[in-house]
Amino acid sequence: MSLEQDITRVVEAAEKLSDIVDTKxxxxxxxxxxxxxxxxxxxxxxxxxxxxxxxAVDAKIQAFQRALPLAPNTLVDSKYFNSICEANxxxxxxxxxxxxxxxxxxxxxxxxxxxxxxLTLDKLDEYGLTPNQDFQSRxxxxxxxxxxxxxxxxxxxxxxxxxxxxxxxxxADNGYFFVLSQGCDTHVGWSKGEFLTxxxxxxxxxxxxxxxxxxPSSNRSAHITCDHTDVGKGWQYKxxxxxxxGGCHQPLFIGMGRMKVAMCLPYVGTGNHGDNMIWAxxxxxxxxxxxxxxxxxx
Length: 298
Description:
The chain is of the alpha+beta class. The chain is built from three helices and eleven strands. It is elongated and about 120 Å long. A six-stranded antiparallel beta sheet has the order 1-3-4-11-6-9. It has a five-stranded antiparallel beta sheet with strand order 2-5-10-7-8.
């Protein structure tokens, strides 16, 4: 019996020890959970402070960008497009519509065609280019009481309807259709310069099929792209920044297929104004310059 009693006592002791261990483990789990909650709370507080700091820094950057003076637009005739098309609101073959300083050409065996229409602002609704809220508040303003024109707005919009049917000789899947090309200024060197350059424009993609995409700014200036993902988004302010200058100012369509896209107020200059909408002419007057006859800056 003594052995049985000993075994019983050992079992009881083991059970008590197991209960003690379970209690200790539960206590440890509770403390770990509490610490995790405290750590999460501290992390949340730290993240909140970091977010506030980041927002403050972003606000400072935006304030600085807004305060930058407007640099002259290196592009000439980019307000009225007087050297694109002979008449307003009339579709014109895009290869013959360009006059100096603008050029357009199919590159390296590419085959394609298209039209460009220089639109006055009163024709935007007619062509499916009604200003959305962003464009109206930032880039065009409100119409007068008679609905005849937009207060304070006086420029032209280009509507391009482009199709590429055959790719390049060395790349059958990608045709290169250059439009609105302007100038190959020589600076210190291509892709050189310890300063920032920027490009911007308003874009509205109405239709797109195939792999075609439009680069309203490329090569010399910071690269801007629009494609089928922009269809239906209405007017968008697109902008980009790079270091130094590249080669020629060469907007182009790349790929295969068809795209119908409108653009206006293209700008290329030095600086970085971020998402703050700007436009400046070729000789330094921020909004009023219209004379393209002298082609100042080319």
